[in-house]
Amino acid sequence: MEISAIQALIRSFATDALGLTLGNPIVDARELPAPCQGAIGCGLKDDPAVWCAWETDQGTVTLLARYDPRQSARVKAHVLHFEWWIGEKHHDAWYYTYQKLPGEWTAGAGRPNRW
Predict the structure, then answer these.
(1) Number of H helices, E strands in the chain
(2) How far is CA 51 from the centre of its chain?
(3) CA-CA distance, 111 to 103, in Å (whole number)?
(4) pLDDT of residue 108
(5) Which residues fall within 8 angstroms of residue 88, CB to CB, at 6 or more apart?
(6) Which domain holds residue 31?
(7) Exposure winner among 14, 94, 98, 112, fewest CB in 10 A?
(8) Residue 102: what pLDDT?
(9) By the 8 A CB rule, do 30 and 37 touch?
(10) Per the confidence metrics, is the pTM higher than 0.90?
(11) Cβ contacts of residue 76 below 8 Å, gap of 6+?
């Protein structure tokens, strides 16, 4: 999946699942809290992560996502592992969303296709 498509999914997750109102984007990783910089810098070459960050009314939010193509094909949904920080508070979970239900995110690595 292309980076721009994963970035769109990250934005959807931030607004629809986390309920954040996104402000100005942060494009320079050096402006992020140290834990975020470390996570962004230690990605595996064969398992690349895509990150996005914004200023929000709850502080800086940084999201790091890894798209799982195998699981996505199995459940016919977009399955991603997210790590996110609001400030320096860290969260980590699998979520999926169906293309037919944009903006609806469900925790977990996916379940059998319901279509």
Answers:
(1) 3, 6
(2) 7
(3) 17
(4) 83
(5) 33, 34, 35
(6) 3-107
(7) 112
(8) 85
(9) yes
(10) no
(11) 98, 113, 115
112 domain-assigned: no
Residue 82 lies in a domain: yes
Q: How far apart are CA 32 and CA 98, in angstroms?
A: 31
**Strand ranges in the chain using DSSP code E only, listed in sequence order:** 22-25, 50-56, 59-67, 78-86, 89-97, 106-107
- Distance of alpha carbon 11 from alpha carbon 63, whole angstroms: 9
Residue 113 lies in a domain: no
Return the minimum-mean-pLDDT range out of 41-45, 91-95, 99-103: 41-45
pLDDT (tens digit, 9 = 90+) per residue, 19-67? Answer: 999 999 988 877 877 767 666 766 555 567 899 999 998 888 999 999 9
Contact 105, 67 (CB under 8 A): no
Residue 105 CA to residue 115 CA, distance in Å, equals: 16
- Tally of CB atoms within 10 A around 6: 20
Domain count for the chain: 1
